[in-house]
Write a structure and sequence with these properties.
Elements (H helix, E strand, L loop, with lengths): L1 E7 L9 E7 L8 H11 L18 E4 L2 E4 L5 H5 L4 E5 L6 E3 L2 E2 L2 H8 L20 H5 L12 H4 L2 H5 L7 H11 L7 H8 L13 H5 L6 H15 L2
Parallel strand pairs: 1-5
Antiparallel strand pairs: 1-2, 3-4, 3-5, 6-7
The structure holds iron/sulfur cluster (SF4) (2 copies).
Enzyme class: oxidoreductase
Organism: Serpens gallinarum
InterPro entries: 2Fe-2S_ferredoxin-like_sf (IPR036010), 2Fe-2S_ferredoxin-type (IPR001041), 4Fe4S_Fe-S-bd (IPR017896), 4Fe4S_Fe_S_CS (IPR017900), Beta-grasp_dom_sf (IPR012675), Helical_ferredxn (IPR009051), SDH/FRD_Iron-Sulfur (IPR050573), Succ_DH/fum_Rdtase_Fe-S (IPR004489)
């Protein structure tokens, strides 16, 4: 059997959070952590967690598994157990817990909105689409794939200390995605909005964000690009 420790908290029932010790059969080793949760949920329907596509695309089931933020649906149990004898499953750190493994992402999305994550272009819309050269399109690779799972921001110490003021790695990756887009006309305003002590510059370049991103993206690299662009433009 595999020992599983799951964070539990229901404000209507529990005086304080606690870790629940459970077991699943060994046959779950080649399966995903989400399969373990589904199995446990069949035994106890009160266990709360988010999930949707189970393909690593929707970004719903980000959680902390054996100390590292991951998507439960694409995390093989055997891989996680290389780092310990038990599966230890907690909610994303640094986010208020609503219940069990479900966290409140309101502040995460509020920070995301601050970077105006949409194309700004006042030219009349062309008949079909705004064209880009293949080289300009390639600049968006490694940026557009973000699924907003919050794994990076929730693993970022600067976010833990300043969640109201620091945009965090996910939002900043998206800021760079639009700054670098050849079709966008708001680069100067975008840079100006980030030029204060907290929004961008609270990043300490430790790299937790890039370490945990389940899509293999590099938010720390994007943050470095924005810093260099700010210095280069003299904004
Ligand atoms: S590199 Fe910056 S954004 Fe990434 S975890 Fe460290 S402080 Fe946070
Ligand atoms: S950058 Fe990676 S970890 Fe961060 S929200 Fe996007 S997909 Fe998730």
């Amino acid at each position: 059997m595999i020992n599983v420790q799951v964070y539990r908290y229901n404000a209507e029932r529990d005086a304080a959070p606690y870790m629940q010790s459970l077991e699943v059969p060994d046959e779950f080793r080649p399966r995903m952590v989400l399969d373990v949760l589904e199995y446990l949920h069949e035994q106890d329907v009160s266990l709360a967690y988010r999930r949707s596509c189970r393909e690593g695309v929707c970004g719903s089931d980000g959680m902390n598994i054996n100390g590292k933020n991951r998507l439960a649906c694409i995390s093989p149990v055997a891989d996680v157990l290389e780092a310990g004898d038990s599966l230890v499953i907690r909610p994303l750190p640094g986010m208020p817990v609503i219940r069990d493994l479900v966290v409140d992402l309101s502040l995460f999305f509020k920070q995301y909105e601050r970077v105006h994550p949409w194309l700004i272009n006042d030219d009349p819309a062309p008949a079909i689409e705004r064209l880009q050269s293949p080289a300009d399109r390639a600049k968006l690779d490694g940026l557009y794939e973000c699924i907003l799972c919050a794994c990076c921001t929730s693993q970022c110490p600067s976010w833990w200390w300043n969640p109201e003021d620091y945009i965090g790695p996910a939002g900043l990756l998206q800021a760079w995605r639009f700054i670098v887009d050849s079709r966008d006309q708001a680069t100067a305003e975008r840079l100006q909005r980030l030029d204060d002590p907290f929004s961008l510059f609270r990043c300490r370049s430790i790299g937790n964000c890039s370490w945990v991103c389940p899509k293999g993206l590099n938010p720390m690299g994007a943050i470095g690009h924005i810093r260099r662009e700010l210095f280069r433009s003299g904004t």
